[in-house]
Amino acid sequence: KKWVYTFGDGAAEGRASDIATLGGKGAHLAEMASLGLPVPPGLTIISEACARYHQGGRCLPEDLKLQVTSGISGMEAITGCKFGSGSQPLLLSVRSGARASMPGMMDTVLNLGLNDETVQALAQNSGDARFAWDSYRRFIQMYADVVMGLDHEIFEEILEDEKGRLGHEYDTEISASEWQHIVSLYKGLIEEELGDPFPQDTQVQLWGAIGAVFASWMNPRAVTYRHLHNIPGDWGTAVNVQAMVFGNLGSSSATGVAFTRNPSTGEKELYGEFLVNAQGEDVVAGIRTPQSITEEARIASGSDKPSMEKLMPEAFSEFISICGQLETHYRDMQDMEFTIERGKLWMLQTRSGKRTTRAAMKIAVDLVEEGLITTDEAICRIEPSSLDQLLHPTIDPSIERPIIGSGLPASPGAASGEIVFTSEEAVSAKAEGRRVILVRMETSPEDIHGMHAAEGILTTRGGMTSHAAVVARGMGIPCVSGAGSMRVDIRSGVLVGMGCMLKKGDIITIDGSSGRVMRGEVPMTQPALSGDFGKLMKWADSTRRMKVRTNADTPADARAARSFGAEGIGLCRTEHMFFEGDRIQVMREMILAEHEEGRRAALDQLLPMQRQDFTKLFSIMHGLPVTIRLLDPPLHEFLPKTDGEIVEVAAAMGMSQTLFRHRLDALHEFNPMLGHRGCRLAISYPEIAEMQARAIFEAAVEAARQTGSPVVPEIMVPLVGLRSELDYVRAVIDRVAAAVAEETGVTLEYLTGTMIELPRAALRAHVIAEAAEFFSFGTNDLTQTTFGISRDDAARFIETYQRKGIIERDPFISLDFDGVGELIRIAADRGRQTRPELKLGICGEHGGDPASINFCEDAGLDYVSCSPFRVPIARLSAAQATL
Ligand code: PEP
Ligand code: MG
């Protein structure tokens, strides 16, 4: 079995397309090597070995060991160095690299191969004893942490103590012999803590590190990350063993990370940071403040530290040309790691860079305009659900607010919330429904759950590529990082900003687009959806087959949805209109009336209100289709619940409390969702349907007169199971239509249809379609009735089901293709058999879920309908579904 793929010296056994086997890092190292780019030689152990390691009781196959040994011999041949001995020791980096990027979640060991002997050789060979001993202590510290399980902090303490004793402020002031002493203290500490010395055998070191990287696949933070990002646990991680190159070999050495375009805005400009005389971990850890790569960026940031362009012009220009080469090759924005060793540039990683949605939009549109990708590819490059990020509120620029600090604009959007200082507090506050801003000196992968629970993140240390910044951008959460003028004191629970001291629980607002931090809650505005967004959406619109409508109950919803590009209303839940203002009172009178006469009196009052609502909706939609659903929920939803409310309503209605309570009891249902609701109401009380139909028709006449465009209302009957139910309600609607036509002298055009929300309706669709001009799949109820799981109680156990692997996805969020989906297909096919022109749509929550939309395309629906804010997501998903 081939476990190991080698690369280096202009050749490689793997390719970029081998991501599943080699992991992202390994596959792209191989690709870069075969492109002839300067990549230190190395080998990749395939991810299947990781799966084996975990299945096989943490053992590794014998042939793997032989293949690694032979791979290392190849590295020795290329570098002229020897692993574990000799005058020129070969040092290795051992890094994880899974199929999907999991930044910072798994472990890494650098400078491997140093021991008491090789450190001397390295000192000799490099001519820099200080570097050799510094590398050795880095190695011990990292190895002890990752492989031997000792906390990194205890080494930092020794280092701090020593610095104090020697009177040094910075690590850079520590001399070779002082590092040597620190190494002996480190080794002493390990032996004391573990009873075993630090391993001198470099083979033991190597296999210890490889095992630790495999083991780190299962560490809790990696498991959480996979859970959040739907990454299967059985993929495993590959391991990359590569010859070390040193960014810490003096002032002509450096290490850095860069993006070929700005990952925040998408602007075509090299974007990155580097540190002179440092190793890779120092950049990501955010301990030292990095320097700009380009001179332009340095000037823009106002930094007085020289840029890489100025400091290392040759390496800089080679780097720029590699950036261009990689972008053209991969046809996408790249995120790269590099090291410069004594002036010589080495590429350590490249991958498609994570970016904000705004940047993703801009980059996709720019790449089309640069001729690198097609519009179809551009459409597929945007994750539909990420469009949510664009709809994030921003701070109203006209509002003046006291700024209490500022940092880097690390992830766009603004957020307000209570200050919390730990991830645990963030999680528990979120569970209580409170909105929080997580405030930290810096974040680490241990904070993932807290970051996920927060509305926004503020750190006082770290750059644009610090952990907080990268993760927040990925999650679409606003983040301000490196707010150096602010100070967090976790122990006393305070955040100190310019001239103020805030405690846990105080409200702050952060603006991840400008980097500002403000006290209190600040008014926000919605972003304009034009420019790149507009272009991309236009491409999506001309690609998709399905229409996208919206679920809108109010004029405000309808207006918002229009601005997001909705092409009609797929569901207006009329009941929501009855909760507005004092209408609920009239509604209650209607419900509680004992006889038809009383109901009619109340309905007469409701009629003009409904008519007015519908007139507004029709005018806003200006001739686009509008589907209005007749009253659906069980009536008691409108009734008073608390004693106080009961007393008040009874008094207002002039009913005795006893009589009132008696009526309430009579309306009580054991299982209201399966009770007196939907078309059953219209059958018991046809006068309700009559009033609603009248309001709809009169409004249609009025709106057509106002706007000059004809209105063809679509009236939808909910919760039909029998054709005879639909026949009955339809007759009521037709009768009212005839009456309104007669009264107004206008010929009315309208459609009558039904929702498919019950398995019986799906199965009898061919018969129901005889009486229906359209079907709209109410997949909320259809999921509830197909599974027999109450949609209102599901949340309590669905999560457990997911955790225990009983079901993969919550069927109320993402359509159950196998069961509910099958019913949809059956209903669509049977319905169209009877009525080929039958219009088919979906208006359950699933109408805004990308995977479900993909299903709808496949099932041949005509449109999806979703909440206004999901309309852009649906437009893009519907386009992707056709590609
Ligand atoms: C549905 O059941 O999917 C639906 C859209 O109706 P409601 O959610 O109002 O029951
Ligand atoms: Mg329903």
UniProtKB/TrEMBL annotation:
Annotated family: Belongs to the PEP-utilizing enzyme family.
Active-site residues annotated for this sequence: 467, 843
InterPro entries tied to this protein: ATP_grasp_subdomain_1, PEP-util_enz_mobile_dom, PEP_util_AS, PEP_util_C, PEP_util_CS, Phosphohistidine_dom_sf, PPDK_AMP/ATP-bd, Pyruvate_phosphate_dikinase
EC assignment: 2.7.9.1
Domain PEP-utilising enzyme C-terminal: 530-881
Annotated residues for binding of Mg(2+): 757, 781
GO molecular function, one term: kinase activity
Enzyme class: transferase
Name recorded for this polypeptide: Pyruvate, phosphate dikinase
Classification of source organism: Bacteria, Pseudomonadati, Pseudomonadota, Alphaproteobacteria, Hyphomicrobiales
Ranges of residues in domain Pyruvate phosphate dikinase AMP/ATP-binding: 61-366
Cofactor or coenzyme needed: Mg(2+)
Reaction catalysed by this enzyme: pyruvate + phosphate + ATP = phosphoenolpyruvate + AMP + diphosphate + H(+)
Pfam families: PEP-utilizers (PF00391), PEP-utilizers_C (PF02896), PPDK_N (PF01326)
Domain PEP-utilising enzyme mobile: 435-515
Binding annotation for substrate: 573, 629, 757, 778-781
Keywords annotated in UniProt: ATP-binding, Kinase, Magnesium, Metal-binding, Nucleotide-binding, Pyruvate, Transferase
Function: Catalyzes the reversible phosphorylation of pyruvate and phosphate.
Keyword Magnesium part of the UniProt annotation: yes
Keyword Disulfide bond: no
Gene3D superfamilies: 1.20.80.30, ATP-grasp fold, A domain, ATP-grasp fold, B domain, Phosphoenolpyruvate-binding domains, Phosphohistidine domain, Pyruvate Phosphate Dikinase, domain 2
